[in-house]
Amino acid sequence: MNLQLTLACGDYDRTHPLIDGIVQPEGISWKITAHLSSPERHHEMLVNQAFDVSELSLASYFISRERMMNLRAIPVFPHRHFRHGYIFINRNSGIHKPSDLAGKRVGVRRFQNTASVWVRGILADEYGIDRRSIKWFTEGDEEIPVTPPAWLSCARIPKGKTLDDLLAAGELDAAIYPEVIPSLSQSAEQVCRLFPNYKQVEIDYYKRTGLYPLMHTVVVKGEILDRHPWVAASVWKAFQQAKLECYKYLSDPRRSSLGWFRHAWEEQIEILGADPWPYDLELNRHALETLCRYLVDDGLLARAPTIEEAFVNV
Hints:
CATH class of the largest domain: Alpha Beta
CATH architecture of the largest domain: 3-Layer(aba) Sandwich
Largest sheet: 6 strands, mixed
Structural class: alpha/beta
Number of helices: 12
Order of helices and strands: EHEHEHEEEHEEHEHEHEHHHHH
Strand content: 15-25%
Radius of gyration: 20 Å
Strand order of the largest sheet: 8-7-6-9-5-10
CATH superfamily of the largest domain: Periplasmic binding protein-like II
């Protein structure tokens, strides 16, 4: 009889074969929750341990380990995203280049949000910006309570307000957001990107650094792996097979309604390679170690773990 488990993940092209049942994990029958937003899913897993297996914010996972939460990650990374295109500024803020962010009021959804961790690190590494020089503002409570470092200037925005509201009104100078901030299109006169040519900036960043920033991983409750250690490999194989099914689907340009889809697909392969989403520790070591370094620099981790410590060997 198969082991009955619950899985929570986003509904992406690379996970959809799991959700619609094309790919089944060996020895597991699972009930899948795919309708939750990322913040909802992460909250349910971190606060309520609501699922047996779950996609989870990578920064929050590393923090949870240091807080002794019994979650164990497998080398599956179902969400990764370049971040330069997700720094938004108010046109009247006096910000014209990255160095202008020093001394400014910058909003983030949460300080430990993986997207904001990456952006702070990129700004420091690429542009020499000291995170201490910025006045940070958060929109929501941290999913894992952390004691902020003494150097951190960070405050909550007023209740009933959003980063979007304050950025458009000029009460924030900039915002780092996980997705396209609504005011970019709704208040085009007030809000724009810090990097208007973000695609070219991100391609250059990847070619120089080899970094395609990791956002999420997949975790399994520790007590399940204590009783059934084979579950880690079974889950990894299922996600890997789902990703390969996705690639097979996308290789046929008739599947897409985009007129130049094939050109975009071939351009991506030329820049990022045939498998830009490797579910492999060694191929992601540089990105994982970079993120851990950024978490330490942010004061969110006391020590960067080794990658072997942090992930189950499958």
